[in-house]
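Supplementary material to the annual report.
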Amino acid sequence: MSDNHLTPDQTEALQEISNVAMGRAGDALARLLNVFVRLSVPRIRPVQGSDLVGALGQVQGDAWVAAVRQGFHHTLRGEALVLFGQEGRQDLAAALGHAHQRDSDDEMLLELGNLLVGACLCGIGEQIGADLGFSPPVLMAEQTRPIDLVDPNILHWRRALLVEIEFGLEHSAFVSHVLILLAEDSLPKLREALDRFLAELGL
Amino acid sequence: MTAILVVDDSMISRRATLAQLPGDWAARAVQAANGREALEQLRSRRFAAVVLDLNMPEMDGYALLAALQQEQIEAFVVVLSADVQPRAMARVITLGAAAFLPKPVQGEALRAVLADAGVA
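Predicted assembly:
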């Protein structure tokens, strides 16, 4: 298989692996903020570079977001985006403010982005035996629409696999999305790893 | 003869759980992909144990546990979830679950908990 699609079994395996990683990330966030974090079911879908803007629009619509971007490399390569919804963000700041001396908004978003990306990707990597290294997180925008985040003409890949993980805070409208874009040249290794994972389960 | 009900929206996760059940319980197990399907099963028959995921579409594990309490349906429920927040664990125990186990499933821990329900 040379494109960015997985078989149904590989897709479901990656979804369950992402689910476990999401749970660990949610626990890390909950402990940092001392709140209950709402989790949902991770979504996996192939995207073309040209479709990415549309895919970002589907994630959080026209709502204003802040965004942190972090690259990863080694066994798997790609980029992770963390979108922080504007609505209810004061609840996030308030929860973090109770846990820390209040940082600036930029520092807060970078810290949380780094925590979520690290926990999600390390959780995935650990389960499939993939080593991962990370670039420093970068604040892409403090207030923008998701569709304005990425210029498809400057992407380094044509196809990718998108893993979408959503976190929410209980009793708050705040929502954050972690979007992991696995570049197409990583996908052969990912498929091998998922097949091993399935074989270990006897599937 | 009673059976075990395995409730999870992930087919991979259900199959991984079935692979860890003792004896011939896997062959007799009943599967449900969400809380609503599980509730229909639990209304119609008694199970030796229920292995329950939390985050599922349609009706999640919390809602199923609440429905079992409301309808006074007795079941030995083992929650098996990736949501490992201490508050998630406390909530499911408050809602009547007998035990909480983190995903991915560990066979020894699952069999030890199920032994309390007479599943061996």
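The beta strands of chain B are 4-7, 30-32, 49-52, 77-81, 99-102.
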